[in-house]
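Please check our next protein.
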Amino acid sequence: MNEQSKKRGATHVVTISSDAEFRRMVENTFSSQLQISLEMLEADLTRIEDAPLDNAAVIVVDLDASNEAQVAALSRITTRPGGAPTVVVTQLFDENVARRLLQIRVADFLVKPVAPIELVRACARAAKTPAACESSAEAEIFTFLPSAGGVGVTSIAIQSALLLQDSTRGGSSTCLVDLDFQHGAVADYLDIEPRLDLSEIEPRPERLDRHLLEIMLTQHSSGLSVIAAPNRPAEMRSFDPVMVTRLLDLVSSHFRYVVIDMPRTWFPWTDSVLLGSNKLFIVSEMTIPGLRHAKKLVSAINERLGESANPQVIVNRFESRMFAPGLRLADIESALGKAFAGSVPNNFRIVREAIDRGIPLEEVKPGNNVVLALKKLILPAAKETKQAKGISRMFSKAG
Protein backbone atom coordinates (compact mmCIF):
# COMPACT_ATOMS: atom_id res chain seq x y z
CA MET A 1 0.00 0.00 0.00
CA ASN A 2 1.58 3.29 -1.08
CA GLU A 3 1.77 6.62 0.73
CA GLN A 4 -1.37 8.02 -0.86
CA SER A 5 -3.48 5.28 0.67
CA LYS A 6 -2.64 6.65 4.13
CA LYS A 7 -4.55 9.93 3.74
CA ARG A 8 -7.00 10.07 6.60
CA GLY A 9 -10.64 10.80 5.86
CA ALA A 10 -10.06 10.50 2.13
CA THR A 11 -12.08 8.48 -0.37
CA HIS A 12 -10.13 5.28 -0.96
CA VAL A 13 -9.81 4.49 -4.69
CA VAL A 14 -8.41 1.14 -5.80
CA THR A 15 -7.15 1.07 -9.40
CA ILE A 16 -6.54 -2.17 -11.29
CA SER A 17 -4.39 -1.85 -14.39
CA SER A 18 -1.58 -3.62 -16.21
CA ASP A 19 -1.01 -0.54 -18.42
CA ALA A 20 2.05 1.33 -17.13
CA GLU A 21 1.19 4.57 -18.94
CA PHE A 22 -2.35 4.58 -17.55
CA ARG A 23 -1.05 3.87 -14.02
CA ARG A 24 1.32 6.84 -14.25
CA MET A 25 -1.53 9.10 -15.35
CA VAL A 26 -3.69 7.90 -12.44
CA GLU A 27 -0.91 8.42 -9.90
CA ASN A 28 -0.13 11.91 -11.24
CA THR A 29 -3.83 12.79 -11.24
CA PHE A 30 -4.59 11.70 -7.69
CA SER A 31 -1.33 12.86 -6.12
CA SER A 32 -2.74 16.39 -5.86
CA GLN A 33 -6.21 15.29 -4.70
CA LEU A 34 -6.21 15.52 -0.91
CA GLN A 35 -9.73 14.08 -0.70
CA ILE A 36 -8.69 10.86 -2.51
CA SER A 37 -6.33 8.13 -1.38
CA LEU A 38 -5.04 5.74 -4.01
CA GLU A 39 -4.10 2.08 -3.99
CA MET A 40 -2.68 0.73 -7.25
CA LEU A 41 -2.98 -2.96 -8.14
CA GLU A 42 -0.49 -3.65 -10.90
CA ALA A 43 -1.97 -6.89 -12.21
CA ASP A 44 -4.21 -8.51 -14.75
CA LEU A 45 -7.87 -8.10 -13.80
CA THR A 46 -8.46 -11.87 -13.86
CA ARG A 47 -5.87 -12.42 -11.10
CA ILE A 48 -7.27 -9.97 -8.57
CA GLU A 49 -8.50 -11.48 -5.31
CA ASP A 50 -11.36 -9.99 -3.29
CA ALA A 51 -9.24 -9.03 -0.28
CA PRO A 52 -7.53 -5.91 -1.74
CA LEU A 53 -10.95 -4.54 -2.73
CA ASP A 54 -12.62 -4.79 0.68
CA ASN A 55 -11.76 -1.25 1.82
CA ALA A 56 -12.36 0.48 -1.51
CA ALA A 57 -14.89 3.30 -1.81
CA VAL A 58 -14.46 3.28 -5.61
CA ILE A 59 -12.80 0.73 -7.90
CA VAL A 60 -11.25 1.88 -11.18
CA VAL A 61 -10.84 -0.97 -13.66
CA ASP A 62 -8.66 -0.71 -16.77
CA LEU A 63 -10.55 -3.21 -18.93
CA ASP A 64 -9.60 -5.02 -22.10
CA ALA A 65 -13.16 -5.24 -23.43
CA SER A 66 -12.15 -7.80 -26.07
CA ASN A 67 -10.99 -10.22 -23.36
CA GLU A 68 -13.94 -12.35 -22.21
CA ALA A 69 -12.06 -13.50 -19.10
CA GLN A 70 -11.58 -9.88 -18.02
CA VAL A 71 -15.24 -9.05 -18.69
CA ALA A 72 -16.26 -12.04 -16.55
CA ALA A 73 -13.88 -10.90 -13.81
CA LEU A 74 -15.39 -7.40 -13.94
CA SER A 75 -18.86 -8.91 -13.54
CA ARG A 76 -17.70 -10.79 -10.44
CA ILE A 77 -16.28 -7.58 -8.96
CA THR A 78 -19.48 -5.59 -9.49
CA THR A 79 -21.67 -8.31 -7.93
CA ARG A 80 -19.57 -8.85 -4.80
CA PRO A 81 -21.61 -8.53 -1.57
CA GLY A 82 -20.82 -5.08 -0.18
CA GLY A 83 -18.84 -4.24 -3.30
CA ALA A 84 -17.84 -0.67 -4.13
CA PRO A 85 -19.08 1.13 -7.27
CA THR A 86 -16.86 0.48 -10.26
CA VAL A 87 -15.60 2.93 -12.90
CA VAL A 88 -14.42 1.25 -16.10
CA VAL A 89 -11.79 2.61 -18.46
CA THR A 90 -11.41 0.89 -21.81
CA GLN A 91 -9.56 1.37 -25.08
CA LEU A 92 -12.14 -0.45 -27.20
CA PHE A 93 -15.68 0.92 -27.15
CA ASP A 94 -18.59 0.13 -29.44
CA GLU A 95 -22.25 -0.83 -29.10
CA ASN A 96 -21.38 -4.38 -27.96
CA VAL A 97 -19.15 -3.06 -25.18
CA ALA A 98 -21.85 -0.56 -24.18
CA ARG A 99 -24.35 -3.41 -24.00
CA ARG A 100 -22.09 -5.51 -21.76
CA LEU A 101 -21.36 -2.61 -19.41
CA LEU A 102 -25.08 -1.87 -19.20
CA GLN A 103 -25.75 -5.48 -18.22
CA ILE A 104 -22.93 -5.51 -15.67
CA ARG A 105 -24.21 -2.16 -14.29
CA VAL A 106 -20.93 -0.36 -13.72
CA ALA A 107 -21.14 3.03 -12.03
CA ASP A 108 -19.45 4.88 -14.90
CA PHE A 109 -17.22 4.32 -17.93
CA LEU A 110 -14.57 6.32 -19.77
CA VAL A 111 -12.75 5.73 -23.05
CA LYS A 112 -8.98 6.09 -23.44
CA PRO A 113 -7.28 8.47 -23.67
CA VAL A 114 -8.86 9.66 -20.43
CA ALA A 115 -8.70 13.30 -19.39
CA PRO A 116 -7.50 13.42 -15.76
CA ILE A 117 -10.29 15.75 -14.64
CA GLU A 118 -12.91 13.39 -16.11
CA LEU A 119 -11.45 10.49 -14.12
CA VAL A 120 -11.60 12.53 -10.92
CA ARG A 121 -15.20 13.54 -11.62
CA ALA A 122 -16.21 9.96 -12.43
CA CYS A 123 -14.75 8.70 -9.15
CA ALA A 124 -16.44 11.51 -7.21
CA ARG A 125 -19.82 10.69 -8.78
CA ALA A 126 -19.38 6.97 -8.16
CA ALA A 127 -18.45 7.54 -4.52
CA LYS A 128 -21.79 9.28 -3.96
CA THR A 129 -23.87 6.36 -5.30
CA PRO A 130 -25.07 3.46 -3.12
CA ALA A 131 -23.05 0.26 -3.19
CA ALA A 132 -23.82 -2.13 -5.99
CA CYS A 133 -25.12 -4.73 -3.54
CA GLU A 134 -27.99 -2.52 -2.38
CA SER A 135 -31.11 -3.56 -4.25
CA SER A 136 -32.53 -0.07 -3.92
CA ALA A 137 -29.77 1.19 -6.25
CA GLU A 138 -30.73 -1.21 -9.04
CA ALA A 139 -33.68 -0.09 -11.07
CA GLU A 140 -36.15 -2.56 -12.48
CA ILE A 141 -36.44 -1.68 -16.15
CA PHE A 142 -39.69 -2.22 -18.06
CA THR A 143 -39.40 -1.69 -21.81
CA PHE A 144 -42.35 -1.38 -24.20
CA LEU A 145 -41.76 -1.96 -27.91
CA PRO A 146 -44.47 -1.53 -30.58
CA SER A 147 -45.01 -4.33 -33.09
CA ALA A 148 -46.43 -1.80 -35.56
CA GLY A 149 -47.48 1.83 -35.70
CA GLY A 150 -50.58 2.99 -33.85
CA VAL A 151 -50.86 0.05 -31.43
CA GLY A 152 -51.06 2.27 -28.33
CA VAL A 153 -47.60 1.57 -26.92
CA THR A 154 -47.25 5.08 -25.43
CA SER A 155 -50.56 4.84 -23.56
CA ILE A 156 -49.57 1.42 -22.19
CA ALA A 157 -46.11 2.67 -21.13
CA ILE A 158 -47.55 5.76 -19.41
CA GLN A 159 -50.19 3.88 -17.44
CA SER A 160 -47.67 1.18 -16.47
CA ALA A 161 -45.28 3.85 -15.18
CA LEU A 162 -48.09 5.48 -13.18
CA LEU A 163 -49.00 2.12 -11.64
CA LEU A 164 -45.39 1.51 -10.60
CA GLN A 165 -45.15 5.04 -9.19
CA ASP A 166 -48.34 4.52 -7.16
CA SER A 167 -47.18 1.12 -5.91
CA THR A 168 -44.26 2.65 -3.99
CA ARG A 169 -46.38 5.12 -2.01
CA GLY A 170 -44.26 8.19 -1.73
CA GLY A 171 -41.46 10.04 -3.48
CA SER A 172 -40.53 10.00 -7.12
CA SER A 173 -39.61 6.33 -7.50
CA THR A 174 -40.36 5.86 -11.18
CA CYS A 175 -38.96 7.46 -14.32
CA LEU A 176 -40.60 7.20 -17.73
CA VAL A 177 -38.12 7.58 -20.60
CA ASP A 178 -39.30 8.35 -24.14
CA LEU A 179 -36.65 7.04 -26.55
CA ASP A 180 -38.68 7.80 -29.65
CA PHE A 181 -36.71 10.93 -30.49
CA GLN A 182 -38.48 11.43 -33.83
CA HIS A 183 -42.17 10.85 -33.03
CA GLY A 184 -42.25 10.59 -29.22
CA ALA A 185 -45.60 11.52 -27.70
CA VAL A 186 -45.13 10.93 -23.96
CA ALA A 187 -44.82 14.63 -23.13
CA ASP A 188 -47.86 15.48 -25.25
CA TYR A 189 -49.97 12.72 -23.66
CA LEU A 190 -49.08 13.96 -20.17
CA ASP A 191 -49.31 17.65 -21.13
CA ILE A 192 -45.81 18.44 -19.84
CA GLU A 193 -42.75 20.18 -21.25
CA PRO A 194 -40.08 17.91 -22.78
CA ARG A 195 -36.72 19.05 -21.38
CA LEU A 196 -34.18 16.52 -22.65
CA ASP A 197 -31.74 18.59 -24.73
CA LEU A 198 -30.04 16.10 -27.02
CA SER A 199 -27.87 18.75 -28.66
CA GLU A 200 -26.42 19.54 -25.22
CA ILE A 201 -25.36 16.02 -24.29
CA GLU A 202 -24.68 14.30 -27.63
CA PRO A 203 -21.27 15.94 -28.32
CA ARG A 204 -19.99 14.98 -24.83
CA PRO A 205 -22.07 12.23 -23.20
CA GLU A 206 -19.63 12.10 -20.27
CA ARG A 207 -20.97 15.51 -19.15
CA LEU A 208 -24.30 13.90 -18.27
CA ASP A 209 -24.36 13.69 -14.48
CA ARG A 210 -27.00 13.83 -11.74
CA HIS A 211 -27.16 17.63 -11.80
CA LEU A 212 -27.69 17.81 -15.57
CA LEU A 213 -30.18 14.95 -15.39
CA GLU A 214 -32.29 16.86 -12.85
CA ILE A 215 -32.37 19.86 -15.19
CA MET A 216 -33.63 17.68 -18.03
CA LEU A 217 -36.24 15.80 -15.98
CA THR A 218 -39.89 16.86 -16.07
CA GLN A 219 -42.11 16.16 -13.07
CA HIS A 220 -45.72 15.16 -13.66
CA SER A 221 -48.34 16.11 -11.05
CA SER A 222 -48.65 12.41 -10.14
CA GLY A 223 -45.02 12.38 -8.93
CA LEU A 224 -43.86 10.50 -12.02
CA SER A 225 -40.52 11.70 -13.43
CA VAL A 226 -40.32 11.92 -17.22
CA ILE A 227 -37.40 12.18 -19.63
CA ALA A 228 -38.51 13.25 -23.09
CA ALA A 229 -37.03 15.35 -25.86
CA PRO A 230 -38.94 17.63 -28.21
CA ASN A 231 -39.74 15.31 -31.11
CA ARG A 232 -38.26 15.86 -34.56
CA PRO A 233 -40.82 14.53 -37.06
CA ALA A 234 -38.91 15.80 -40.12
CA GLU A 235 -35.50 14.56 -38.97
CA MET A 236 -34.71 10.85 -39.25
CA ARG A 237 -31.41 10.18 -37.51
CA SER A 238 -29.82 7.95 -34.95
CA PHE A 239 -27.82 8.95 -31.89
CA ASP A 240 -24.56 7.73 -30.48
CA PRO A 241 -25.18 4.49 -28.52
CA VAL A 242 -22.83 5.84 -25.84
CA MET A 243 -25.19 8.76 -25.20
CA VAL A 244 -28.27 6.55 -24.90
CA THR A 245 -26.47 3.99 -22.73
CA ARG A 246 -25.10 6.65 -20.40
CA LEU A 247 -28.51 8.31 -20.09
CA LEU A 248 -30.22 5.05 -19.13
CA ASP A 249 -27.38 4.00 -16.83
CA LEU A 250 -27.66 7.28 -14.93
CA VAL A 251 -31.45 7.09 -14.72
CA SER A 252 -31.26 3.49 -13.52
CA SER A 253 -28.98 4.45 -10.65
CA HIS A 254 -31.44 7.03 -9.25
CA PHE A 255 -34.87 5.41 -9.60
CA ARG A 256 -36.45 2.22 -8.38
CA TYR A 257 -38.38 1.68 -11.62
CA VAL A 258 -37.56 2.81 -15.15
CA VAL A 259 -40.18 2.50 -17.91
CA ILE A 260 -38.99 2.92 -21.49
CA ASP A 261 -41.21 3.82 -24.45
CA MET A 262 -39.31 2.52 -27.50
CA PRO A 263 -39.58 3.57 -31.15
CA ARG A 264 -40.57 1.02 -33.73
CA THR A 265 -37.39 1.62 -35.76
CA TRP A 266 -34.33 -0.45 -34.79
CA PHE A 267 -31.30 1.71 -33.99
CA PRO A 268 -27.66 0.81 -33.14
CA TRP A 269 -28.51 1.22 -29.43
CA THR A 270 -31.71 -0.86 -29.47
CA ASP A 271 -29.97 -4.15 -28.66
CA SER A 272 -28.37 -2.64 -25.56
CA VAL A 273 -31.66 -1.27 -24.26
CA LEU A 274 -33.54 -4.54 -24.77
CA LEU A 275 -30.79 -6.62 -23.16
CA GLY A 276 -30.59 -4.23 -20.22
CA SER A 277 -34.31 -4.57 -19.49
CA ASN A 278 -35.73 -6.72 -16.72
CA LYS A 279 -39.04 -7.03 -18.54
CA LEU A 280 -39.57 -6.57 -22.28
CA PHE A 281 -43.13 -6.17 -23.58
CA ILE A 282 -44.12 -6.04 -27.24
CA VAL A 283 -47.41 -4.19 -27.70
CA SER A 284 -49.67 -5.45 -30.49
CA GLU A 285 -53.19 -4.77 -31.68
CA MET A 286 -56.02 -7.29 -31.97
CA THR A 287 -55.78 -7.98 -35.70
CA ILE A 288 -54.33 -10.87 -37.67
CA PRO A 289 -51.60 -8.67 -39.25
CA GLY A 290 -50.85 -7.23 -35.81
CA LEU A 291 -50.39 -10.68 -34.28
CA ARG A 292 -48.24 -11.77 -37.21
CA HIS A 293 -46.00 -8.72 -36.75
CA ALA A 294 -45.72 -9.43 -33.01
CA LYS A 295 -44.86 -13.09 -33.56
CA LYS A 296 -42.18 -12.20 -36.12
CA LEU A 297 -40.73 -9.60 -33.76
CA VAL A 298 -40.56 -12.11 -30.91
CA SER A 299 -38.69 -14.55 -33.16
CA ALA A 300 -36.34 -11.84 -34.44
CA ILE A 301 -35.47 -10.68 -30.90
CA ASN A 302 -34.87 -14.24 -29.67
CA GLU A 303 -32.65 -14.94 -32.68
CA ARG A 304 -30.74 -11.68 -32.36
CA LEU A 305 -30.36 -11.40 -28.60
CA GLY A 306 -30.90 -14.92 -27.30
CA GLU A 307 -33.54 -16.36 -25.02
CA SER A 308 -32.51 -14.13 -22.11
CA ALA A 309 -34.38 -11.18 -23.69
CA ASN A 310 -37.65 -13.12 -23.23
CA PRO A 311 -40.05 -10.74 -25.03
CA GLN A 312 -43.71 -11.00 -24.00
CA VAL A 313 -46.64 -9.74 -26.04
CA ILE A 314 -49.45 -7.53 -24.71
CA VAL A 315 -52.46 -7.43 -27.01
CA ASN A 316 -53.97 -3.96 -26.70
CA ARG A 317 -57.59 -2.93 -27.38
CA PHE A 318 -58.84 -6.47 -26.88
CA GLU A 319 -62.56 -7.05 -27.42
CA SER A 320 -64.24 -10.24 -26.27
CA ARG A 321 -66.27 -11.82 -29.07
CA MET A 322 -68.03 -14.86 -27.71
CA PHE A 323 -70.57 -15.25 -30.49
CA ALA A 324 -69.42 -12.67 -33.05
CA PRO A 325 -67.03 -13.47 -35.92
CA GLY A 326 -63.39 -12.48 -35.58
CA LEU A 327 -60.45 -13.20 -33.26
CA ARG A 328 -61.05 -14.79 -29.87
CA LEU A 329 -58.77 -15.13 -26.87
CA ALA A 330 -58.10 -18.78 -27.77
CA ASP A 331 -56.93 -17.68 -31.24
CA ILE A 332 -54.48 -15.19 -29.73
CA GLU A 333 -53.13 -17.76 -27.28
CA SER A 334 -52.71 -20.27 -30.09
CA ALA A 335 -50.93 -17.75 -32.33
CA LEU A 336 -48.48 -16.40 -29.72
CA GLY A 337 -48.00 -19.39 -27.45
CA LYS A 338 -45.73 -18.82 -24.45
CA ALA A 339 -44.97 -15.27 -25.63
CA PHE A 340 -48.53 -14.10 -24.85
CA ALA A 341 -48.46 -12.04 -21.65
CA GLY A 342 -52.09 -10.93 -21.62
CA SER A 343 -54.53 -8.44 -23.06
CA VAL A 344 -55.74 -4.92 -22.33
CA PRO A 345 -59.41 -4.21 -23.11
CA ASN A 346 -60.55 -1.62 -25.63
CA ASN A 347 -61.91 1.43 -23.82
CA PHE A 348 -61.38 4.18 -26.36
CA ARG A 349 -63.49 6.80 -24.60
CA ILE A 350 -61.59 7.01 -21.33
CA VAL A 351 -58.18 6.58 -22.99
CA ARG A 352 -58.92 9.47 -25.37
CA GLU A 353 -60.13 11.66 -22.51
CA ALA A 354 -57.02 10.90 -20.44
CA ILE A 355 -54.78 11.82 -23.38
CA ASP A 356 -56.70 15.03 -24.16
CA ARG A 357 -56.55 16.17 -20.53
CA GLY A 358 -53.03 14.90 -19.78
CA ILE A 359 -54.15 12.94 -16.72
CA PRO A 360 -54.01 9.29 -15.56
CA LEU A 361 -56.85 6.96 -16.54
CA GLU A 362 -57.76 6.57 -12.87
CA GLU A 363 -58.67 10.26 -12.70
CA VAL A 364 -61.05 9.83 -15.62
CA LYS A 365 -62.74 6.77 -14.16
CA PRO A 366 -61.45 5.05 -11.00
CA GLY A 367 -61.28 1.28 -11.26
CA ASN A 368 -61.61 1.25 -15.06
CA ASN A 369 -61.00 -2.01 -16.91
CA VAL A 370 -57.81 -0.82 -18.66
CA VAL A 371 -56.01 -0.08 -15.39
CA LEU A 372 -57.28 -3.29 -13.78
CA ALA A 373 -55.89 -5.31 -16.69
CA LEU A 374 -52.51 -3.55 -16.53
CA LYS A 375 -52.28 -4.12 -12.77
CA LYS A 376 -52.50 -7.86 -13.40
CA LEU A 377 -49.73 -7.64 -16.00
CA ILE A 378 -47.30 -5.09 -14.54
CA LEU A 379 -47.37 -5.39 -10.74
CA PRO A 380 -46.76 -9.17 -10.63
CA ALA A 381 -43.98 -8.62 -13.19
CA ALA A 382 -42.34 -6.08 -10.87
CA LYS A 383 -42.36 -8.62 -8.04
CA GLU A 384 -41.04 -11.31 -10.37
CA THR A 385 -38.07 -9.23 -11.57
CA LYS A 386 -37.12 -8.41 -7.98
CA GLN A 387 -36.97 -12.12 -7.12
CA ALA A 388 -35.09 -12.92 -10.32
CA LYS A 389 -32.38 -10.37 -9.52
CA GLY A 390 -31.88 -11.95 -6.13
CA ILE A 391 -31.44 -15.36 -7.79
CA SER A 392 -29.02 -13.96 -10.37
CA ARG A 393 -26.86 -12.55 -7.55
CA MET A 394 -26.71 -16.00 -5.99
CA PHE A 395 -25.48 -17.51 -9.27
CA SER A 396 -22.95 -14.70 -9.73
CA LYS A 397 -21.59 -15.29 -6.25
CA ALA A 398 -21.45 -19.03 -6.78
CA GLY A 399 -19.65 -18.55 -10.11
Remarks:
- Residues 1-6, 131-136, 387-399 have pLDDT under 50 and may be disordered.
- The chain has two domains: 3-128, 138-398.
- The chain is about 40% helix and 15% strand.
- The first strand starts at residue 11 and ends at 16.
